[in-house]
Amino acid sequence: MTAKGKFVGRSVPRLEDRPLLTGKGRFAGDVSFPGQWHMRVVRSPIAHGRLGSIDARPALALPGVHAVWTYADIAHIPPIGFRLTGLVELEAYRQTILAHRYVRYVGEPVAAVFAADPYVAEDAADLVDIDIEPLPVILDAAGPPGPFDEHRNTETSVIEKKSGDLDAAFRKADMIVTLDLAIGRHSGVPMETRGAIARYDETRDILEMHGAAKVPHWNRDRLALMLGREPGQVQLYEGHVGGGFGIRGEMYPEDVLVCAAALKFRKPIKWIEDRREHLIAANHSRQQRHMIKAAIDKDGRILGIDDEFFHDNGAYMRTHAATVPDLAAAMLPGPYRVPAYRARGHIRLTNKTPCGTYRAPGRYESTFVRERLIDAIAARTGIDAIEIRRRNLIDKAAMPYSLGFSTLGTDIVYDSGDYAKLMDRLLAAADWQGMQRSLARRRAAGENVGAGFAMFIEKSGLGPFDKVRIEVTATGTIEVITGVASIGQGVETAMAQVCAETLGIDYTRIRVVHGQTDRIDKGMGAFASRVTVMCGEATRMAAVKLREAVLGAAAELMQTSAGQLDIVDDEIVRTGRPGPTMKLAELAAARPTALTAEAEFKSSHMVYPYGAHIVQLRLDSGTGAVDIERYLVAFDIGRAVNPMLVEGQIVGGLAQGLGGALFEEFTYNDGGDPLAVTLADYLVPTAREMPTVETFLSEDAPSPLNTYGFKGAGEGGINPVGAVIASAIDDALQRPGAVTRLPVTPWAIKEMLRGR
Amino acid sequence: MSGKTAINLSINGRDYAITVEPRRTLADAIREDCGQTGTHIGCEHGICGACTVIVNGEPVRSCLMFAVQADGKQIRTVEGLAQGDRLHPLQQAFMDHHGLQCGFCTPGFLMLAVGVLEREPDIGDEELIDVLSSNLCRCTGYQNIIKAVRAAAKQMRQR
Fold first, then answer.
1. What is the rounded distance in angstroms from the CA atom of residue A13 to the CA atom of residue A23?
2. Domain A31-136+193-281 has what CATH class?
3. Does domain A17-25+462-602 fall into CATH 3.30.365.10?
4. Yes or no, beta carbons of A654 and B78 under 8 Å apart
5. Which of residues 23-82 of B touch A (CB under 8 A)?
6. CATH number listed for the domain at residues B5-80
7. pTM of the predicted protein model
8. What confidence tens digit (pLDDT) does each residue in A336-387 have?
9. Longest C-alpha distance within chain B, in Å?
């Protein structure tokens, strides 16, 4: 273990908690302005159709209704652009702000009602009469493509990643293992629905949007471009955000609508999504089908992997463009040596809600596929699955290890890792051999019990930069101003800890500002487990500079040299000997403008944490329920700023992973009508379904790419959950390869138990 | 729909005389008409429990109750838990055990747990998990919420 610092490495309480515990939070719904109008979006009730006339007169006749917008009112606004992996050929498939000529999923915004009261706005939305001529729907992304419009079909693009000589690998293979696997449609489903409040301040000529999240600077720049304003004339303000998970804070049509309406009507415009809207209109994710085959030798060593997959992106391409399939293809090899590799991903559109990222995008999917494949290799060769993993793991001595292709604009080079060591540690913690013996005894006694093991590589710390400015205010408070965002993960506490460590000031005295575009000119936001790595290093760099500035200014006033001074508990003191001291606040008052420092950390490579999960479970033959008896997680993130927060990330991610493995799915009927439109249909795990999780954090492999060795902690809890649950269910059934799709619902388990 | 009714909501010991449509939910009345935005709305169909408040001693989903049904009743919300700067033992336990991340579901969990622990201070572990499974959290995986409520229950029993 790396030595603990005074603050870094300590599980200190969070700075964020008090207002959230006392009801003083400021979430999007809590933001109101005098005279505001409320927007209600009228959504398509039809999954695919030609849009005819829209009659808004009955809605407009309702007292309190101010306006109804359709496409004609916003035709001058271009579709939202791509934030990541924006392949040019995908641009023609972007969603217009309101539907134009066609509707392509149930939930698509067709019109917007503006009224004095949200209840009236909802009444009026029901009165807007939309004429839609239904068209055939496409719901299977792996089936034949169909028309998107007169010129294009629903196969938008095919991405490919490859390395090595695949043909040669399959020619010399002793065996070929083939699988057909599917992952269902899930999403982040944060507890706070989306919301946006726009306000135009005529005196300053500034358009404000409140309720921003995740990527405020990108959204600011893009909104300015779309609405024909200078970026400085648009400011975004992040308040509290009730969960992110990839989905929240991406730019959506509704964000653009409130901003355009605030400019047009010169009224504050408030939009708060309801849960049904959220489940059919905010980004979905995950749905893929993989046909994968591996060439192996007789000892179970992988010679090559060839994967062809179909990514169901729903009705349109949104801000993430090709990101999810690209990551699935790029991260599929995981911790194993794959000398020859090819993944071809068909990016398909269907008449379902459009997709974006969801925590561990592409990896939840491809870890499920890869670890299923490893288990299948074990079954085929008759060699133990742990031994197969051990034979194929990338050795520590091979680090840094390049896969030979790129994703998110960065070459994939695993920066550090000792995968075998982590695997052995977790197996020992679980007493894997003892667990196997005990499960065998219980199975012999008639119980359906089993255990699973899965490994994974995560990626984190996406650049290209983060910028931080630190200022000492006149009262001696330290303000760390960043361009990142808070989605509940504890960024204020973690950045304060990093700053405190370098400065020598208690972390509770440090105020971390995030998500405010008028406080710092640029920023990358919070996604891809990037904040602790990128903003953490930028904070450290700025804190080093600030420390120099503080000691330099103090040396002048204290008539000594900076080298003789240190900062201890808010005071500048002489090192090694007693003498006069100076409070930081006194120094700030004496040198009001001198105590500021700025730094930018640039990085062109991601950093790669890794881990393993073990689960032991029992299948209930009566109900098909899965009872999780034990769950263990090992995760190496290089260095943990705050182990308590890291464990919180792991357990929280795991709950979501369990949802995707066993309960959660956006299903549709044959007509494309969504069937999961309430939280009684889309089954998020509760306290009852969650096992107690045993977590083992290790710091064997600090990243060489930043000073502290940080790697991101946000996605290792969710990444292999589907994979490990599938493996354990196979084991409980004593039927290798039984699980071929997620989620494994009670109904599916009963079927499998019957089919035994 | 347009006819409004005059009602009195007593929230954390303070009276709010408001006029509401019969269809107005208690959650909306607490937030919009009485300005107490600590009570959150997460689904408006009674599943997530983010809007849980205590009405006459019972935890209820304020999205499933009309404001007119709460006329004259004693309502407690998250804003009434702390005594000045001193946090309620449950709030303190949530902080100590990292029982919250984004904090959106937190007021609902706090009011659910306060309501239950006041009525059943000796509630058993299994029963407590059943109670806590009536609300949803998407960040924490519940482990630390359960720890926090157990710790607070112990402390509340000692007082």
1. 18
2. alpha beta
3. yes
4. no
5. 23-24, 31, 36-45, 47-48, 50, 77-79, 81-82
6. 3.10.20.30
7. 0.97
8. 999 999 999 999 999 999 999 999 999 999 999 999 999 999 999 999 999 9
9. 51
